[in-house]
Amino acid sequence: MMNEGCIGENPSIDTQPPHVDHIPIVNDDRRGSKRSRGVLWDDSHTFTLIKCFEDVYVHIKRGNLRLQDWEQVVNSLNKECGLSFSCDQVRNRIDTLKKKHKKESTKQNSTGSTPSTWKFYDACESLWGSSPKCIGIFWCI
Hints:
Blueprint: H1 43-59, H2 67-81, H3 87-111, H4 121-128
Helix pairs in contact: 1-2, 3-4
């Protein structure tokens, strides 16, 4: 059984594709369809991820997560969702949420506009906002 940690690669796998003279194009019509760029996260999985991440993040006093912390987040998420997200997928989703939160926060601070309509804003604000209003996103009003 191989250890599937977050960091590192399996050196026994050849990453070079075999030599191919011609690769047939099955369907070059990409109009009207989105190209898959990875995992499609639905809202319930994202909210569950935020909750699992928050549990670990608050426990380590809002510091940087180490490998074992990320694995704890992944294990909690997979247990609650009944799926098997990888550590890389979880880290990428958290990074995407952080970037989107930062963009939304900057937009709000610069324009003084109405509150963000982004569905994950309040949950992310409780984690990464300049002054977290409460501990635990599910206890926030």
